Amino acid sequence: MKVGVEAAADPEINQKRRGILRRMYRQRYLQVMALLGVAWMIVFNYFPMYGIVIAFKDYDIIGSIGSA
Question: Which UniProt keywords are given for this protein, alphabetically ordered (predicted)?
């Protein structure tokens, strides 16, 4: 009595996974556009926060930025 791999796996889970992957493949251009928007937001909203933090530090010209 040999049990195959297909019989051991739950077919409903495989069907759901296949459906999700198929849907992601169909929406790949939408996901790329969303990823570009997220990258834009990170670059222009979160990277400048470093400059804001540096602007309000007690800066010493002789010392380094890390010791301020």
Answer: Membrane, Transmembrane, Transmembrane helix
DSSP track, 44-60 = IIITTHHHHHHHTS---
Cβ neighbors of 55 (< 8 A, separation 6 or more) are: none
Record the pTM.
0.50
Residues of the chain with pLDDT under 70: 1-9, 59-61, 63-68
- Structure tokens given for 63: 């010392």
Query: How many Å apart are CA 55 and CA 62, to the nearest integer?
Result: 17
